[in-house]
From TrEMBL:
Domain of life the protein comes from: Bacteria
Lineage: Bacteria, Pseudomonadati, Bacteroidota, Flavobacteriia, Flavobacteriales
Protein name per UniProt: Uncharacterized protein
Length: 86
């Protein structure tokens, strides 16, 4: 993936801004975890503005992998963020 660092930075920023730590993108459809949806209720206007950008980033990953994926963001013991694409 040519833009791996850019994509990783984007999802870390999304996690910091909206608390999204997991998502799934299957059959060109974005799915967010129910616990993430509860957090987004309080940030709905800001997230609405970001949603199209999120779908574009997910579509970029989907096109590169040629299949659906799940993405998880975790923090390690040294407070570094890890973005895992499964």
């Amino acid at each position: 993936m040519n833009n791996l660092k850019h994509i990783e930075d984007y999802f870390i920023k999304l996690h910091r801004s909206f608390g999204i730590s997991e998502l799934s993108y299957q059959n060109r459809r974005l799915e967010l975890d129910e616990s993430n949806m509860k957090l987004l209720v309080f940030a709905s206007e800001a997230f609405d503005e970001e949603f199209e950008n999120l779908v574009d980033h997910c579509s970029m990953i989907y096109d590169e992998l040629q299949k659906g994926f799940s993405l998880k963001i975790r923090k390690d013991v040294n407070n570094n963020y890890l973005v895992n694409v499964i």
